[in-house]
Input
Amino acid sequence: MTETTGWTSPPVGPWGCLTGRRARALCEDGKVRAAVATAEPDTFFSVPARVTVQGRTVSGFLMSDSDGVLQFLAYTYGKNGHLLKPTEEGADEH
Output
C-alpha cells in the first residue's frame, strides 16, 4: 500500500497563509514523512519546510512533481541534510 502525500490542512484561497501548515511529503530517501511549512513561499514552485528524521530537524522545501506528488527536498548545505540521502545497498549504515 502506498502512502498518500498532500496538505493535511490545505491553505484557504490561492495565496492563503502556509506558515505552520502540515503536509505528508515524499522524502528523498523514499519515505513519506510529516512536514511543516516554515515560511511563506519565496517562489511560485516551492515552500520552505522542515521534517524530523531520527529526532533531528532537517530543513528544505516542499514542491509538487509532474504527477502532483508532494515532495520534500532537503537543503544540501543544511546541518542535517545528509540524513535524507538514500543509502546504497550493501553499504554499512552507522
About this structure: DSSP finds no helices and six strands in the chain. The chain has a mean pLDDT of 78.
